[in-house]
Fold this protein.
Amino acid sequence: MPVKGPERIALIPFAPLLFYFSFSKFDLWFFIFPALFLLTLWRSFRVWLLVGFVSVFLSLLWIRIAMIKYGEVFPPVAYGLIALLSFSIALFQFGGTYLLWRLAKYNLLALPVGWTFFEVLRSNFPYGGFPWLLVGELTVDIPVLREYLSAGGVYLGTLLVWMLSLIPYAWTDRILAMATGILFLIPIPFIKGVGVQPEEVKVAIIQPYVAENIKLNKKAFYEYLPNYWKLLDEAMKEYPDIVFLPESAFPFTANRLYSEGDKILEYSKRAVIVTGLIDIRFGEEIEPYNSVFVIKDGKVVDFYDKVRLLPFGEYVPFPFGFAKSIFGSIGGTDYVPGKEVRCLNVDGLKIATPICFEVSYFSLVKDFAECADFIAVLTNDGWFEDSDGTHQHFRQARVRAIENRKFLLWVNNTGPSAVISPLGEVVKEIPYGEKGVIIFEF
């Protein structure tokens, strides 16, 4: 059903807009179906690439907040870099899928397979991959369809969304209609029920809402700490077993915990504290780690070091070392990755603690979940404020909860913070921009 004539040009702007709104914070996930359908109307590599570039660029514009407002990157340079990233993703995801479709002589079944193939590929390569804007993530908001995430994960979700987008063709294409039916039936026996959950555990989630400009000013950050003590006092009134605080929660590093973190050590005598801290270790060189620590009875009893670091955020990959001298915001010492995915032991409970963007990785969280009673993601989305990026990140957490059929605690500095059920439902939530405490008992 290729489009011909002037209407072909008139339709082009609609596809990227529909794609963007599908992934935006406005929860218009259903726009993904017409967005993908519109792509099938054009048999032109240039149109696919153009639609892809605009779609991705609009959906990733939130990156500018961290770059310009907090990283002090010159705005034209920041937008240029976002455009370069968007073009790379579009060339790979949209361009690659189109070329595979053309190679298959425009067989419609090549579209779901090709698109999913390139999603898997770019989720892992290069530099650990960029598993963002995966079509299957949108199934978390689609009744019934979300259940398939537990059978085959986010990539099965992508296949299903694409097949549903091709339904208008199924009326005349028998093979497509049969393939759609088979695809929806095969995973049904593998849809998981809710797994065994921890019993009689009361947890507290602290959302301190420390604006990023405060976190970046050490003096202001220290002056903000009384807000933490008020929230911790509020939480302690409920006698929680475990209290969770977000990523890099305090202005001091883990190696200064015993000299500057006396208040936290005192609170840990009333409940176990699980918190994110930057840790500086000294060997032949200074080695910074992004870590999660378990503090009990005034001492550290366990920790996890972030394994999957964020390129250009936590380290500068080869061969881009020269960028450190150009952009002051990414200068300094690179973080060191942890050696292994491991669960924290908290009074006999096994807790998976992916840090920030680690929740984006399907296979990484799967590895975590194998040893975990539940998942607690510690993050700081203050870099991106109340943007599409914060919303996209939160959606990924809901996807991971369904895939692994485990409760997931979303512990966010600026919000939202939440308890997410094994069915992907938000059980309790503190909205973005508020200080607060969530108390939840399994």
